[in-house]
C-alpha cells in the first residue's frame, strides 16, 4: 500500500510545490536538510488552509469543502481523480483535526507532513496557539491516535513512485534536466508540442521530421520548396526572393532564471473566496511548464498580457518590426538558475553560426547568485571573482555558437530591499480572509524551513538585507566591467542596469502601487506587470552614449536609420507611414500617418514632395513598370472586398516601379513597406 501522506501530496498546490522543488537545480549544497520534506510541509499547510477557508466562505462542512475543492480541479494529469482518492481514504483525520479548531500548522505537524527535528526551531505560518505548542500537539495526536496515516507516514516512498504519476514525473524531470523539448522527433531542439520545454519556450517547429527545418535559420534556397525557417514566408518565383533580403532578421534568446521564465502561482489557486470551476483551467499547463509561463514573459512572450498591460515582449517588438523574425525566440531559463549552474543547461541553446541568422542574447541571472534559502546565506553568495570566471566561460561558449553580427546584453542585479520595504506588513492571499497571515510571517516560515527563494532579501534582518544588496551591486559592477573591457568576434557586448526605480516610477504614473509589481503568492518574483520592464530597458538605453547600443535599441524599437543604402526620400515615406514627422522638404500636410493607398502612392511618386507629381497610369490590370511587370497581372486585380490585400499589393507595385537601375533601393522598399506579406496573397 502506498504511503497515504505521500498520496496527499497530489492534492492541488501540494503537488505544485513538490514539483517546484524538483524544478529547482540551484541547490548544490548536499548538507542542507531535505528540501523535499520542507516543500512537503509548505504544501500541506497551503492545502489545509484552503480547505478550511472554503468551509468558512461557503458555510459548509470540512467534508463538503474538500469535495468542492476536488470538483474544481481538471481531469488532466489525474488531478481530480487523485483528489477524490485522498478524500475517500484519508480525509477523515483532516476533518477531525479541523473540526477540533486545530489550525493548518497543527494539522500538518500532527500528520507528520511537517517535522521539527531535534535542535531545530519550530516552523509555523500562523500565530502559535494560546496553549503551549507541546500541549496542543499532544492533544491533536490523541484525536487521530488510531489513524492509519501515522502508521504509513514514515515510509520513504516518493510522490513519483505512485503508478498514476510515475510517467508524468519521468517526462517532467527529463525535460527539466535537459532543458530541451521532450517531444522532439527530429532532435533539432524545437517541438510542435507547447509544454515540457516545447514551443512555449522556443519557436514552434513546422516540420518535426526534418532536423534542417527550424526557426531562426537562414532560408534554404530562398524557401522555394518549403518554409525552412518556420517564419511562415515562402518565397515563390525569382521575384519573391526579395521577401526577407536586406531586412536583417534577428532572433531573441534569454539566458535567465525563474524571473526570466516568468514563474507564477495563480492567487486563485489558494484564495478560497475567488475559487471557481475556471480557476484551475491552466493548472495542467503550468505543471508541465514547471510553474513557469514563458509564453507571457517580457523577453520571449508571444501571447497577449492577461492583466491588460499594453507593452509587448522584446520578441513581439522584433516580430512587429520584421515578420521575418516570426518564431525566432528561445527562453533558456530555469528555476534556480545562476551563473554557477548555467553550464549545466546552456548546451540546450540552439544556434548554428554558419546556417542561422544573428541573434540578440540577454543574460539575466538577476537573483540566485546572491539568493538562497540557507540559514546563513552570505557565505553561499557568488563572489565577484567567481562571477567573472563564470561569465567569461559563458561568453566564450556563446562566441563559439552565435553567428557573426549577434549581440549579447548582460543584465545587472536589482536591489531587492524593495521586497521587505513594500510587502512585509501587507496580508498574503492566504491571510486576507481572516487577516492572520502577512508577508513577514510567510518569509519567516520559508526561512525557517530553508526553502525561501531569497533569505537575504526576504528577512526581517535589515543588516542581512543590506549585505545582500551590496553583494548584488558588486556583481553588477563586475558585469559592467566585463562588458566594457572584453571583445568577441561574433557579437557585440553590452551591459544594462536593472532599472527597477524607473520601472516603479513608470508604474506609479499609471496609478499603480509598487507592491503590485511582485508575484502575490511567493512575494518574491516580478509578476506579469513587469513586462513594463521592457519600457525600463528602452528608457535606460536612451541615457547611454554607446553608439552601437543606441543602434541596437533603435533596431528593436523599429526605428529606421537612413544610411547610404537607402534613399532619403524613401526613408521619409517610411517615417510618414509610421506616423512620424518627415524632413522639412516635404509638405507639412503629409507629415501625418498615411491611412490610404493614394496618399502613400503620392508620397512615393513625388519622392516625399521633393519632385513634381509624375504622370502615371492607374495601377490596374496593366501591372507596373519595369520590375513590376514580373508580377502576375491578377495581383493588381484583387477583389475590392479585400482592402488589406489591395493596400499591400499596391505598395509592392509602387516599390517595384520606383527605381529600375538600383535594385538595392527596390529591395529596401519592398522589405520596409510590407512586401513580406505578399506570399499570403499569392498562395
TrEMBL record:
GO cellular component, one term: cytoplasmic vesicle
Main location: cytoplasm
Keywords, ordered alphabetically: Calcium, Cytoplasmic vesicle, Disulfide bond, Glycoprotein, Hydrolase, Lipid metabolism, Metal-binding, Secreted, Signal, Zymogen
Record bears the keyword ATP-binding: no
Cofactor(s) listed: Ca(2+)
EC number: 3.1.1.77
EC top class, as a word: hydrolase
Keyword Transcription recorded: no
Positions of the Saposin B-type domain: 37-118
Domain of life, per lineage: Eukaryota
PROSITE patterns found in the cross-reference section: SAP_B
Annotated signal peptide: 1-23
UniProt subcellular location: Cytoplasmic vesicle; Secreted
Reactions this protein catalyses: a 3-(acyloxy)acyl derivative of bacterial toxin + H2O = a 3-hydroxyacyl derivative of bacterial toxin + a fatty acid + H(+)
Any one Gene Ontology molecular-function term assigned to this protein's record: acyloxyacyl hydrolase activity
GO biological process terms on file: lipid metabolic process
Assembly, per entry: Heterodimer of the large and small subunits; disulfide-linked.
Name of the molecule in the record: Acyloxyacyl hydrolase
UniProt organism field: Pan troglodytes (Chimpanzee)
Upper taxonomic lineage: Eukaryota, Metazoa, Chordata, Craniata, Vertebrata
The gene coding this protein: AOAH
Amino acid at each position: 500500500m502506498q504511503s497515504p501522506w505521500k498520496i496527499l501530496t497530489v492534492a492541488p498546490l501540494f503537488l505544485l510545490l513538490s514539483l517546484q522543488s524538483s524544478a529547482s537545480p540551484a541547490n548544490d549544497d548536499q548538507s542542507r536538510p531535505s528540501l523535499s520534506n520542507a516543500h512537503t510541509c509548505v504544501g500541506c499547510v497551503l492545502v489545509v488552509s484552503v480547505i478550511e477557508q472554503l468551509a468558512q466562505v461557503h458555510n459548509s462542512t470540512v467534508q463538503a469543502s474538500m469535495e468542492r475543492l476536488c470538483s474544481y480541479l481538471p481531469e488532466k494529469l489525474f488531478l481530480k481523480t487523485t483528489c477524490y482518492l485522498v478524500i475517500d481514504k484519508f480525509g477523515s483525520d483532516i476533518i477531525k483535526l479541523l473540526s477540533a479548531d486545530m489550525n493548518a500548522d497543527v494539522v500538518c505537524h500532527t500528520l507528520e507532513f511537517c517535522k521539527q527535528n531535534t535542535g531545530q526551531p519550530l516552523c509555523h505560518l500562523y500565530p502559535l496557539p494560546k496553549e503551549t505548542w507541546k500541549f496542543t500537539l499532544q492533544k491533536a495526536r490523541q484525536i487521530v491516535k488510531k489513524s492509519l496515516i501515522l502508521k504509513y507516514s514514515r515510509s520513504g516512498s516518493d510522490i513519483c513512485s505512485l503508478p498514476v504519476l510515475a510517467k508524468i514525473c519521468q517526462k517532467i524531470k527529463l525535460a527539466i534536466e535537459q532543458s530541451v523539448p521532450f517531444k522532439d522527433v527530429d532532435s533539432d531542439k524545437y517541438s510542435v508540442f507547447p509544454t515540457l520545454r516545447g514551443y512555449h519556450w522556443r519557436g514552434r517547429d513546422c516540420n518535426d521530421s526534418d532536423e534542417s527545418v527550424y526557426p531562426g535559420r537562414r532560408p534554404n534556397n530562398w524557401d522555394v520548396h518549403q518554409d525552412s525557417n518556420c517564419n511562415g514566408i515562402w518565397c515563390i518565383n525569382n521575384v519573391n526572393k526579395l521577401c526577407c533580403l536586406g531586412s536583417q532578421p534577428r532572433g531573441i534568446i534569454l539566458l535567465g532564471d525563474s524571473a526570466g521564465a516568468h514563474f507564477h502561482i495563480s492567487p486563485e489557486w489558494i484564495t478560497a473566496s475567488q475559487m471557481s470551476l475556471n480557476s484551475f483551467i491552466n493548472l495542467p499547463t503550468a505543471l508541465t511548464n514547471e510553474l513557469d509561463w514563458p509564453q507571457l514573459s517580457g523577453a520571449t512572450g508571444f501571447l497577449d498580457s492577461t492583466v491588460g498591460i499594453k507593452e509587448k515582449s522584446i520578441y513581439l517588438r522584433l516580430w512587429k518590426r520584421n515578420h521575418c523574425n516570426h518564431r525566432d525566440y528561445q527562453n533558456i531559463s530555469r528555476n534556480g538558475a545562476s551563473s554557477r549552474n548555467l553550464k549545466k543547461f546552456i548546451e540546450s541553446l540552439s544556434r548554428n553560426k554558419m546556417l542561422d541568422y544573428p541573434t540578440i542574447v540577454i543574460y539575466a541571472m538577476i537573483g540566485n547568485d546572491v539568493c538562497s534559502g540557507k540559514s546563513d546565506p552570505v557565505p553561499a553568495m557568488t563572489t565577484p571573482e567567481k562571477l567573472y570566471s563564470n561569465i567569461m566561460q559563458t561568453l566564450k561558449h556563446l562566441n563559439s555558437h552565435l553567428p557573426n553580427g549577434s549581440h549579447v546584453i548582460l543584465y545587472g542585479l536589482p536591489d531587492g530591499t524593495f521586497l521587505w520595504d513594500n510587502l512585509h506588513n501587507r496580508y498574503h492571499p492566504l491571510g486576507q480572509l481572516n487577516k492572520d497571515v502577512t508577508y513577514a510571517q510567510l518569509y519567516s516560515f520559508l526561512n525557517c524551513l530553508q526553502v525561501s527563494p531569497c533569505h537575504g532579501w526576504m528577512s526581517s534582518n535589515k543588516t542581512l538585507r543590506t549585505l545582500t544588496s551590496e553583494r548584488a551591486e558588486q556583481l553588477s559592477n563586475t558585469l559592467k566591467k566585463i562588458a566594457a573591457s572584453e571583445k568577441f568576434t561574433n557579437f557585440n557586448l553590452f551591459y544594462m542596469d536593472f532599472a527597477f526605480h524607473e520601472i516603479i516610477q513608470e508604474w506609479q504614473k499609471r496609478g499603480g502601487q509598487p507592491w503590485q509589481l511582485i508575484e502575490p503568492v511567493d512575494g518574491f518574483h516580478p509578476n506579469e506587470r513587469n513586462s513594463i520592464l521592457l519600457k525600463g530597458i528602452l528608457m535606460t538605453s536612451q541615457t547611454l552614449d554607446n553608439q552601437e547600443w543606441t543602434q541596437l535599441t533603435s533596431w528593436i524599437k523599429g526605428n529606421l536609420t537612413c544610411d547610404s543604402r537607402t534613399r532619403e526620400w524613401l526613408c521619409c515615406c517610411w517615417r510618414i507611414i509610421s506616423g512620424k514627422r518627415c524632413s522639412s522638404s516635404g509638405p507639412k500636410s503629409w507629415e501625418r500617418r498615411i491611412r490610404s493607398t493614394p496618399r502613400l502612392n503620392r508620397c512615393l511618386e513625388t519622392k516625399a514632395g521633393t519632385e513634381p507629381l509624375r504622370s502615371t497610369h492607374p495601377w490596374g490590370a496593366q501591372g507596373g513598370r519595369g520590375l513590376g511587370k514580373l508580377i502576375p497581372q491578377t495581383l493588381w486585380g484583387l477583389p475590392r472586398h479585400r482592402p488589406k490585400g489591395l493596400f499591400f499589393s499596391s505598395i509592392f507595385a509602387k516599390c517595384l516601379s520606383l527605381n529600375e537601375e538600383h535594385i538595392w533601393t527596390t529591395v529596401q522598399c519592398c522589405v520596409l513597406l510590407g512586401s513580406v506579406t505578399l506570399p499570403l496573397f499569392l498562395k
